[in-house]
Amino acid sequence: GGVYRLDSRIAICPQCGFSFNSPCPAAEAWHQYYTSGLSTCPGIGAAFDTKARFEFLKRYGTRKSVFLEIGGGQVGEFQRRCRRLFKAAFMVELIAETAADFRSLTQVPSASMDVIAHYDVLEHVLEVRDFLKNCHRILKKNGVMICEVPDVRLYPKNLVILELEHVNHFSSFSLAMIAQQCGLSLVEVSHAASRPYGFAAVFKKIRPKALFLSLIHISEPTRPY
């Protein structure tokens, strides 16, 4: 356990609208905060629609696919379904009390996964580009990454999601812009996410040349609301 001070000073990128804490918390303290998550807040689990999350995921996975979930927490019904869906299913989780296969993305072998998914994780990550570049490294050729995050456009409608633990705040457009810079091209955005205040975005790993061309064709964001 321990006492943590979470300050919130939000900066906004004028080009893409990406919002983030500036300065961010110190990396060592942030890591300690999350690795002690279960002992600091025992019995608190994330509420999400397991069926909605799984139905969306299985459109991109097959019995021949190798799957990695980042930040899955304790093994539950969703993880058990994933183990039945995929050829193999792995998990990255910082918290020592969880039954994870890896404690860091850097431990995962390069080009080893067909599908990666992380749900309500990216808003907590201090170095978003480093995280996404690692996802790109881990994916096989033409591999797919599914990312679910709170939608910054819904903040005025639900202030509960404006949590101090969130150091990043995404729209579908700002997330697509950052992911493109890391070699991940947007395939699909769905607002029928597993939580009512978020969106799910699907990205495909692309080659460096394809990345340059796709950056040219990023369009202005459309407003779903």
Tell me the layout of helices and strands.
Layout (H helix, E strand, L loop, with lengths): L9 E3 L6 E3 L5 H9 L1 H4 L9 H8 L8 E5 L6 H9 L2 E5 L20 E7 L8 H11 E12 L17 E2 L2 H10 L2 E7 L7 E8 L2 H9 L9
Parallel strand pairs: 3-4, 3-5, 5-6
Antiparallel strand pairs: 1-2, 2-7, 6-9, 8-9
The number of helical segments is: 7
Mean pLDDT level: 81
Q: Whole-number radius of gyration?
A: 17 Å
Order of SSEs, N→C? EEHHHEHEEHEEHEEH
- Largest beta sheet: what is the strand line-up? 4-3-5-6-9-8
The main pleated sheet reads as: 6 strands, mixed
N/C terminus separation:
41 Å
Low-confidence stretches: 38-44, 216-225
Q: What form results from the Cα inertia axes?
A: globular
How much of the polypeptide forms β-strand, as a percent range? 15-25%
- Helix fraction, binned, reads 25-40%
Q: Give the beta-strand count.
A: 9
Structural class: alpha/beta
Structure write-up:
By secondary structure, the protein is α/β, with parallel strands linked by helices. Helix content is 27%, strand content 23%. It has seven helices and nine strands; from the N terminus they run ββαααβαββαββαββα. It has helices at residues 27-35, 37-40, 50-57, 77-85, 128-138, 172-181, 208-216; strands at residues 10-12, 19-21, 66-70, 88-92, 113-119, 139-150, 168-169, 184-190, 198-205. It has a six-stranded mixed sheet, sandwiched between helices. A three-stranded antiparallel sheet has the order 1-2-7, with no helix packed on it. α3 (50-57) runs parallel beside α4 (77-85). The longest helix is centred in the middle third of the chain and has 11 residues, at 128-138. Mean pLDDT is 81; it is low at 38-44 and 216-225.
